[in-house]
Model the fold of this input.
Amino acid sequence: MSNVHGHIVRVDWSLCYGCEKCITACPTDVFNIVTDRAGRVVVDPIRESDCILCLVCEIVCPVKAIDIEQKEGSEDTLQSLLEGSD
Ligand code: SF4
Ligand code: SF4
Done:
């Protein structure tokens, strides 16, 4: 069963361990630190409507717990820019 929280900013609580790197990195303060039912510290993207899709949280997360839901393949566009493809 999925343990993903959020719709635009999707955090997989089975991977997140509450390191807070995404909280520090996010320019629009999307995340809150919370405790799940099992007592684990995780982040909840409660202000995901403020997300500007900068992808910084995805990049800084050490365990790839965050997935930013993007429309129209913009992640592919970013990837191709990063790879410098022509
Ligand atoms: S993509 Fe950027 S604005 Fe959106 S939650 Fe991640 S760090 Fe914050
Ligand atoms: S950076 Fe990743 S592991 Fe750390 S709190 Fe954020 S989602 Fe969880």
